[in-house]
């Protein structure tokens, strides 16, 4: 009986040893999945953005959306949109490196035709040599719902969000949300454009400055053409923003053309003098008669 128990014990041990499989431990750092920079190592379910969200801006009713998040599951991804805060994505997969990260952090408004057209969330997780970002378009709906998410270009996402807070015809107008001083500045800018004192390009640049002052738009990085634009820089595509600048540049070009004409005439005169001098100094060849 004792030998029989020993045999059974030995058989069980041998079967157990045969079922052991060596497990590969992944230790290298990755810039995606649960090992992404946006994940808190001590708490893998907590995502850490690289920047803080921008200050609240836009229609006051949108204050009611702050602190709330709206989820959508499509195919093998679950998205979570927290208006004026952040946008995250979770890959529903059993893979060890299933993606879990931040697609964007609240940055500014995208304004079209002087209306709030979309929320822009930038500075998401790194994706190659760029950062992920999301543009969330708005539409009227009976409740707050994240309707869809697409990826038109690599790591640049588009989403559609419905909310009852945009159903009023004036809900997304920018002008009423500006303070009195910025409204006056807009009125003055529009008057200048109406009377032709500034071009359409100048009007648009002026509007962007107003939106930036109001904290609605992204920081302006493009520079306006300087008053001393040369002919060479004009060939590169510089534009004028008002009539006064255009007149100055036209006069500068006239002066430059006149200067070049004088230099060209002087060069022609030098060439003619050199030809005469060469003929004068040329030695006479003697010919012998046979």
TrEMBL record:
Gene Ontology MF terms in the entry: transferase activity
Q: Which Pfam families match?
A: PRKCSH
Coiled-coil stretches, from where to where? Answer: 243-270
Does the keyword Nucleus feature in the UniProt annotation?
no
Q: Which residues form the MRH domain?
A: 67-169
Q: Name one GO cellular component term.
A: Golgi apparatus
On whether Lyase is a keyword of this UniProt record, the answer is no
**According to the UniProt entry, where is the signal peptide?**
1-18
Q: Per the database record, which ranges form the DMAP1-binding domain?
A: 174-283
Which keywords does this Swiss-Prot/TrEMBL entry list? Coiled coil, Disulfide bond, Signal, Transferase
Gene3D superfamilies attached to this UniProt entry: Mannose-6-phosphate receptor binding domain
Name of protein: N-acetylglucosamine-1-phosphotransferase subunit gamma
